[in-house]
């Protein structure tokens, strides 16, 4: 299992466009990929609605977990998206 602590850097937090970008990226991997908030809420990254339901604002820290055959590649790609601000 791969895990990383990531921070939302987008001014508007996790709204529909970055959530869709995350889900589109996650779907490409076989691994199970989840985000968990500091408050213990969890979402499957392959679900746009699950991601949005976390209500992540700018500065929020989340734990990324990936488990499966391509977990390292999945975690690296998702972390890269967070670090780039999802292209915004």
TrEMBL record:
Q: Which residues form the HPr domain?
A: 1-88
An annotated GO cellular component of this protein is: cytoplasm
Q: Work out whether the entry's keyword set contains Cytoplasm.
A: yes
> Coiled-coil regions in this chain?
none
What is its subcellular localisation?
Answer: Cytoplasm
Provide the alphabetized UniProt keywords. Answer: Cytoplasm, Phosphotransferase system
Q: Which domain of life is it from?
A: Bacteria
Full protein name = HPr family phosphocarrier protein
Q: Which PROSITE patterns match?
A: PTS_HPR_DOM
Q: Which InterPro entries match?
A: HPr, HPr-like, HPr-like_sf
Keyword Cytoplasm assigned to the entry: answer is: yes
Task: Name one process (GO BP) from the record.
Answer: phosphoenolpyruvate-dependent sugar phosphotransferase system
SUPFAM superfamilies given in the database record? HPr-like (SSF55594)
